[in-house]
Batch of 2 targets.
Target 1
Amino acid sequence: KKAPEAKQDWQGKTFIITAGPTREAIDPVRYISNHSSGKMGYALAEAAAHAGAKVILVSGPTQLPTPTGVQRVDVETTEQMLNAVQQQLPNCDVFIGCAAVSDYRVAEVASQKIKKEQNNQPPQLKLVQNPDILQQVASSEKPPFTVGFAAETENLKANALRKLERKQLQMIVANDVSQVGLGFNSDSNNAIILSKDSEQSLPTMSKHDMAIAIIDAIAKRYFNTTA
Ligand code: CTP
Ligand code: CA
């Protein structure tokens, strides 16, 4: 027997969703990034738009088409992603940080291609930490309902709960990225949706289905309904 679908009306509400990787230049031809495909974030954008929300998708470089009805803002670096998010934040009701943001960037980007000839030994890249977009949103003056993701390879729940607490989030989706073929750069996912006082395990399913389940879980909390 299928549970009745909790159809919440997101009409008139605005989501900002970050998706994909960010990319930090080393020199004009090289960068630091990660394997994020953007699929989960794009699926969330599609599901939220389908449920009636206005959706702004702030996306790092991906190979994906823009979902129908979604307004997409393309960025490359973490700084650009933060700026784009801040610009849209005043009108935001729900923020979902799904991007795999590069935690570090190179302290000084070389203006010309780094040449082997100029170095007797491999160059030492000096890294500096990037701003935490999710944390800044959650601690902004009038914070939206803020949802994070936690990509973990060990101690999934404990690590995710720490992030929920530390970043002052309403909800976090804990993602085990240690399993080959799940999570990063794949079509399916399994996860635990955690909030301060609730826990919902989602079995392995497509990112499309998981997006619907996550938007649904947000609706239950946001509209404070019990199902
Ligand atoms: N995030 C962000 N800005 C950053 C780093 C992370 O907005 N500079 C967001 C991600 O989009 C995600 C959440 O924070 O929603 C958690 O990302 P994750 O990489 O799992 O956690 P970190 O806090 O970066 O900690 P660590 O990488 O050390 O596990
Ligand atoms: Ca990180």
Target 2
Amino acid sequence: TLTACGSGSGSGSGSGTITLGFSQVGAESGWRTANTKSIQEAAKAAGIDLKFSDAQQKQENQIAAIRSFIKQRVDVIAFSPVVVTGWDAVLKEAKAAGIPVVLTDRAVDSDPSLYVTFLGSDFVEEGRKAGQWLVDQYKDTREPVNIVQLEGTVGAAPAIDRKKGFEEVIKANPNMKVIASQSGDFTRAKGKEVMQALLKAHKDIDVLYAHNDDMGLGAIQAIEEAGLKPGQDIKIITVDAVRDGMQALADGRINFIVECNPLLGDQLMDIVKKVHAGEKVDRRIVTVETVFDQAKAREVLPTRKY
Ligand code: GZL
């Protein structure tokens, strides 16, 4: 009998093992490493031969990886596009080579006929959930509420849409103002660096909205080094709900987290098998996810998978 998880060279169609080429953004955050682990474990469990590439958050590395997968004649290509633009040429090359492409995690601005489906979260909805919690927290105040925003990677779908959803909802309360908004590139280091600068420039920050836990955790270091109490002097809302973020939430240093589920591996492998078998898959598959306050975080922490 064929070893389902064999090394699977070449097209993979010979031995019946499906070969999947996957181009990952990088390893910039706890979310990303959880997402990578999910994809690698799911491929093994599904008997799919995974060729995995880490782009260190550079689009040119993702494009090179996709071209390499085309040359290797993989059966299916999947990737998480670091930014929304600049993919038309390489997606047309994959189409010309007859290799189906699956988008995971982040979206692209390209012509939808160039990929089979997009499996990932609704980032505008995540931004709305963050904004709604804040509007509810301050519904009775007439005082100004000064917000600083740590945006994700410039040009990335989650950064564009989490900003859009959040700013749309907080319009409900004219006292709420985003007094500064800057990219922290989804990393702790950059999140800390940008927050240090914001704390120097603004003495009246009430709220931090960070597009992911990692930038929020970096900002917390800056806030504490400035002698302020995160979660009290400055309310903090983040997105992801990875372990370190949930621990900070449980400890009261973050006030609210909107979950962004990184465990896309099993769904991706199901899609890959269907696509390879020529079966129809939905054009858009939205990830299921929730929100957490401090009490909920304390309750679920022991059983969190990531
Ligand atoms: C969201 C994902 C984002 C996470 C960040 O689906 O693309 O990228 O929110 C990660 O933590 O870096």
